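task queued by scheduler; priority normal; single chain, no ligands, no partner chains; default sampling; output format set to structure tokens
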Amino acid sequence: MVKLFTRLAREFGLMIRMRKVALGVLFITLLFLVGGSYGEDLSSPEATVSNYYNAIKSGRFEKAYEYTSREMRDGRSIEQWVEDWRKTFESGKVVILEFSVSPAQIEGDKATVKVTSKSRDTFNPKGITEHEIDHLVKENGAWKIDETEILMENL
């Protein structure tokens, strides 16, 4: 009976450890998936731009603010910056449908990233594709969007 109890306890302990490992892996996977969209990854220009657009796309302007430089914030507090963006998106009925980010061109503490986005708004209810270049700078070791340049095509 003691051997049976010992064996069951050992197997039960192993099952608990395996469950903990499985839960740990699941937790890390979920963090990675969520973090890829809204994480604090500012280690590369592409990550900063992707996180910024994901935040804007989902209406999380407070999060998007974190990916912008002091220059791009133009002296506005987070509350004012968020309010400005929220009003713009609401009044224009802006919906970002999708976006893609190209590899960055890095020169020291400055970088550029090309972005292609598809969106819909009051003036373009069927949708429009836009091409932009985001200019980034390093602030305190983190890449931040400093300026967005919208590329206009010849009509």
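post-processing summary
- Residues 69 and 144 are 5 Å apart (CA to CA).
- The longest strand covers residues 128-139.
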